[in-house]
Each structure stands twice: as C-alpha cells, then as structure tokens.
From TrEMBL:
Protein family according to the UniProt entry: Belongs to the sideroflexin family.
GO CC entries: mitochondrial inner membrane
BP term (GO), one: serine import into mitochondrion
InterPro entries according to UniProt: Mtc (IPR004686)
Catalytic activity of the protein: L-serine(in) = L-serine(out)
Function: Mitochondrial serine transporter that mediates transport of serine into mitochondria, an important step of the one-carbon metabolism pathway. Mitochondrial serine is converted to glycine and formate, which then exits to the cytosol where it is used to generate the charged folates that serve as one-carbon donors.
Subcellular locations according to the entry: Mitochondrion membrane
UniProt KW keywords: Amino-acid transport, Membrane, Mitochondrion, Transmembrane, Transmembrane helix, Transport
Protein's recorded name: Sidoreflexin
Stretches that traverse the bilayer: 149-169, 175-195, 225-247, 267-287
Pfam families noted in UniProt: SFXNs
Length: 322
C-alpha cells in the first residue's frame, strides 16, 4: 500500500511551471518530441486509458509517477485538449519537425522557378492548414464548406504572396532570393491561421475561470490566441528558413558541392531539421498554452454575464491552440 501512487498529482496541468519560459520549454520539448509520431495505436490507447483513469481516481497497479507523466505527455501529443479526439497524425505537433524539415528543405532548395515556388508553397500551406485545423482552440466543429473555403483562401493567399515576393526578389542580389520562401511563409502564416480558425473569430473560443468552469465563448480571446500562434509560427520559421540559406550560399561555392550537387537537397533538409528540433518547442513556449486575459477585455455581454454568475472572477483562461 505504501508504494501506491498518490492521487494528488495534478496532470490537468503540465509537469513544469508554465509561468516561466524554461518551464514552458521543457513542456513543449515533450509535446513536440518527433519520436511520438512513431508510437503505435496500442501505445496511444494505453496512455489515454492511464491518463483518463487517473483523472477519475483510478490508478494502474505498480504505476510510478514518471510513468504517469510519460503517459500524460503521450496523451497530450496525440489527443486534442478540448475535444479529446485523436488528432490526425501529420497535424500533431510531434509531426512538425519531420514533416516541416522535408517541406522547408525543398522550398529552400527549389526556389528558382515559378512552378517550383507555386508547388512547394501549395504543399506547405496545405500542411499548415491541416496543422492549424488540428490544433485549433475550442470544441465547435467546422462544416466541410467552411473548411474548404478556409483552405482555398489560405493557400491562394500564400501562393500569391510567394509569387509577388519572388518577382520583387528578382531585382535584388542572389542571396536575397534565397529568403523569398521565409518571407512568403511569414506572410502566409498571417493569412492561413486566421482563415483556418475563422469560426473562432466569429463565434469565440471557450473561456474559463481559474477552476476550469466554462464561462462562455469570446471572439476577443480568439483574436489574442490567434495572434500569439501567428507570432510563434513565424518565430519557428526564422531559424529554419534564415540560417540554412546563409550556410548553403557558402557551401555551394565549395568544390565538393559543385562536384556533388545532388547533396544540395539532403544537406538543406538536414540543416532545417536541426534548426526545427530546437525552434519548434522554444517558439511554442513563447506564450503559455493556457492563455489568459482580463474580464474587462471581453465582449460587453460576456462581461455582464460573468459579473452575474461569477462576480469574483477578474481573469479568464483559454486554450490558445498551437
């Protein structure tokens, strides 16, 4: 009996203090761990059962605290925090590094021709659309028509932006054209994320008090959440799309790269992957996952409702999405 796991461990919250950047970074290094993509359905299901049973006051015999936290982070990496549904595999944050390194590496390698720019920007924004939808905040579903319209708007905007920047870069030094993919991705994130989460901007996302009691839905909270996600996503792209072009520009002048040009793409992909391993969790950690805002920043009608139902509440909390 003395070895039985305590039921007082709060696994509704991350293991590390989310009030500090370092605590959030440790949390997101676990959530975005690329190895989680390789886990079997049986492992994910076992983690879900352990996590949900523990929340219900049931512990698996012999379960240690470290094993509980491991199960909780496997659960968090694969199941949506608001709906509890298993997320589409390439939309999970643990798939960000392997999928993004391949796409970004190709964008940085094949940037010289218009068809290549259009194709890889389309692939990238299609991937981003899946990620943005999978990691949306809230539990309200989007209809197929809404999802289709959002996808077409987001990808069209991104491709048009990329082509415009490519045309502009053609009048600049060669090194400048290498940064077209980054500028396009940064601009496209400002288009793609709001479009894919437009339902939240219209109807709001759930806001809660400090005890997790749902108080209503707020479009203002959605605006703050989406703005934070846009900043984080652009931040993720900076090292992966700004550092490799400089290195590759120098490497391509070397004799061995001229002799083996086939190495260009794999070297570029490897450099991008190295950057993303660190940039993805560190930029996710820029803002707390459980974001907050003052009640005074909410819509007037929601403020009035909160004053009536929960007069002592001055701050509300919400899942910002990823």
């Amino acid at each position: 009996m003395g070895n039985k796991l305590s039921l007082n461990i709060n696994i509704k919250e991350p293991r590390w203090d989310q009030g500090t950047f370092m605590g959030r970074a440790k949390h997101f290094f676990m959530v975005t761990d690329p190895r989680n993509v390789l886990l079997s359905s049986e492992t994910l299901e076992e983690a879900r059962v352990i996590t949900e049973n523990y929340r219900a006051g049931i512990t698996k015999p012999g379960l240690s605290e470290d094993e509980l936290w491991r199960a909780k982070y496997i659960y968090d990496s694969a199941f949506h925090p608001d709906t509890g549904e298993k997320m589409f595999v390439i939309g999970r944050m643990s798939a960000q590094v392997p999928v993004n390194m391949s796409i970004t590496g190709c964008m940085l390698t094949f940037y010289r021709t218009t068809p290549a720019v259009v194709f890889w920007q389309w692939v990238n924004q299609s991937f981003n659309a899946v990620v943005n939808y999978t990691n949306r905040s809230g539990d309200a579903p989007m209809t197929v028509n809404q999802l289709g319209a959002a996808y077409v708007s987001a990808t069209t905007g991104a491709v048009v932006t990329a082509l415009g920047l490519k045309s502009l870069a053609s009048r600049l030094p060669p090194i400048a054209s290498r940064f077209v993919p980054f500028a396009a991705v940064a601009a496209a994130n400002c288009i793609n994320i709001p479009f894919m989460r437009q339902r939240e901007l219209k109807y709001g996302i759930p806001v809660m008090d400090e005890n997790g009691n749902r108080l209503g839905e707020s479009p203002n909270a959605a605006k703050q959440a989406i703005m934070q996600v846009v900043v984080s996503r652009i931040g993720m792209a900076v090292p992966a799309m700004a550092i490799p072009p400089v290195i590759m520009n120098a490497l391509e002048k070397k004799a061995f790269m001229k002799r083996f040009p086939i190495l260009n793409a794999p070297v570029q992909v490897g450099l991008v992957g190295l950057c993303l391993v660190f940039a993805t969790p560190l930029c996710c950690a820029l803002f707390p996952q459980k974001s907050s805002m003052s009640v005074s920043g909410l819509e007037e009608d929601l403020q009035e409702r909160i004053r009536e139902t929960s007069p002592n509440t001055t701050t509300v909390y919400f899942n910002k999405g990823l």
